[in-house]
Amino acid sequence: MSIRIGILGYGNLGKGVESAVRQNPDMELAAVFTRRSPESVSIQTPGVPVLHVEQLEHMKSQIDVLILCGGSATDLPEQTPGYAASYNVVDSFDTHARIPEHFAAVDAAARAGGKVGIISCGWDPGMFSLNRLYANAILPEGQDYTFWGKGVSQGHSDAIRRIKGVADARQYTIPVPAALEAVREGRNPELNTRQKHTRECFVVAEEGADKVRIEQEIKTMPNYFADYDTTVHFITAKEMARDHSGLPHGGCVIRTGRTGIEKDHGHVIEYRLNLDSNPEFTGAVLTACARAAFRMNQEGMTGGKTILDIPPSYLSAKSGEELRRQLL
Amino acid sequence: MSIRIGILGYGNLGKGVESAVRQNPDMELAAVFTRRSPESVSIQTPGVPVLHVEQLEHMKSQIDVLILCGGSATDLPEQTPGYAASYNVVDSFDTHARIPEHFAAVDAAARAGGKVGIISCGWDPGMFSLNRLYANAILPEGQDYTFWGKGVSQGHSDAIRRIKGVADARQYTIPVPAALEAVREGRNPELNTRQKHTRECFVVAEEGADKVRIEQEIKTMPNYFADYDTTVHFITAKEMARDHSGLPHGGCVIRTGRTGIEKDHGHVIEYRLNLDSNPEFTGAVLTACARAAFRMNQEGMTGGKTILDIPPSYLSAKSGEELRRQLL
């Protein structure tokens, strides 16, 4: 029997989950739920219904895990606790500072309903967090580094788009090669914000807009750009469509640490992702976590979880015996 | 209350565990057990007894987890199942082909005794296996690659030492840079043994030994060297001691895969280790797994486990709340 997946929200992430479900033979897509008019949403999986979100009230017996594909700012803080009492749920909540309160809300709802709710599954938070945990457990004395990119930051792209005179924008976060190299060599550099990443912006200006002012506004924008070395390129809408339509991302988590009675041996642990499509990869992580949510709940577990709590084997469709034989 | 660790076997790995225990404030070393005469073994932790292995019959109430630091060829197949009924045990059994039978034996003993037995904890098997599992669960359609090195292979070094006329030897396994690059770029190369790794050997010949014959015997040795491009350097005992006394190792596990309805997006997941001391790093992994064994058993779990079964948070001394706040 397949694990029946529901998707709530059909943006880039929802589409990523849809294609990931198709790559996992032990799963099937049961329905896509949307706040829009269902007739206006056309999905890629033949024969699967698109339903209005309100239909979730009546679908409990037809969905094993509901994957929430909304945004962290306003959708997930409401949706994940809202549905965790009725469904096993998985989300990619990524507002790091608010994870404790989000976890508490999802945990309470999931416990009350006897369901499992896994939050913050993606790559950061998600796979990067997991690698920070493993590396810290193995090397208690050491230093953590996270580099993001090269990749598109949607938040920074949006921030540029809000500037007057900007028609479109794409921002790439790029690790500083020398910083990365120093970390990988175990030199334990102290790095400030500017020394770790640069920001490269591609901007389509509206006709007649003041490009000098736009560039100045970008480079001095607090939090987003002021603390970084930022370069701005003005391009045409055609160039934007041709060269910057993808959503690549990635980065690495590195921990360096020392062992030995005299601490005379250094070690470097690095986990690195190079992703052509951020939403499809995030969707793939969510989908593997949905399998774990289903299995944990089948075994009687309930409550809030994160990827840090999931026995790794629960993410895989293979049996313990197969895993030991093939992957261990 | 600290987790009380026992170490069985005080070679390089046992010493690695000893120093790792010292880096984990929630643990203490209770005793080191040896098959040698205890008086002949001097350890680095003041006040901790060295006992004969037979004393393990009487130490059940004083040890929470016994870490088995023997070899996979003859020690562990006997010791791990032998002690798993009386102690929570952790080992680094690394004969991949024999893992299923070793697991079965440990599982049966641990279940019978109500204990937890975690086998094959190190980096390969161990952390590399874990990363293969995660990457396969996320990217079901893709290809796995493992590269080892640059590092000392003890098995290959030993094989050279068995050749007539060889006084000492050290063998380094080295990934082929072009192969690594092709994999990282997502080109999915088909690589045979020779294309993935080269082998570099440093040999101290006995006086008057026939170096031409020794080099020939190394390069044509089946399984160990015949399938590789191997270089042999003859050096002095002094050079060996000066330049090759360490036991560095490492390597990387890479999975490349594609996502999307049309499979048009490629992804690369890489986990990389660069280790100054193979036994100290392996000892550090064993020690983190000992914490998990203790906690799993405290919660009532029993039987054979591998790192693939351990909820990641059990490896860490931090609480779930701390982990979510600090690492997620």
Walk me through what this model shows.
With 328 residues, the first copy, chain A, is of the alpha/beta class. Chain A has eleven helices and 14 strands. The longest helix of chain A has 21 residues, at 278-298. Chain A is globular, with a radius of gyration of 22 Å. The interface between A and B is large, with 71 and 71 residues.
Secondary structure topology:
Two copies of one chain form a homodimer.
Chain A: E1 3-8, H1 12-22, E2 27-34, E3 50-52, E4 65-68, H2 75-84, E5 88-90, H3 99-113, E6 116-118, H4 127-138, E7 142-148, E8 151-152, H5 154-161, E9 166-175, H6 177-184, H7 193-196, E10 197-205, H8 211-219, E11 229-234, H9 237-243, E12 249-259, E13 265-275, H10 278-298, E14 303-305, H11 320-326
Parallel strand pairs in A: 1-2, 1-4, 2-3, 4-5, 5-6, 6-14, 10-11
Antiparallel strand pairs in A: 7-12, 8-9, 9-10, 12-13
Helix fraction of chain A, binned, reads: 25-40%
| Strands ordered across the widest β-sheet of chain A | 3-2-1-4-5-6-14
Residues in β-strands, percent of chain A? 25-35%
- Number of contiguous helices of chain A: 11
The rough form of chain A would be described as globular
Task: Give the tags.
homodimer; 328 residues; alpha/beta; 7-stranded parallel beta sheet; 4-stranded mixed beta sheet; 11 helices; 14 strands; globular
How would you concisely characterize the structure shown here?
The structure is a homodimer of 328-residue chains. With 328 residues, chain A is α/β, with parallel strands linked by helices.
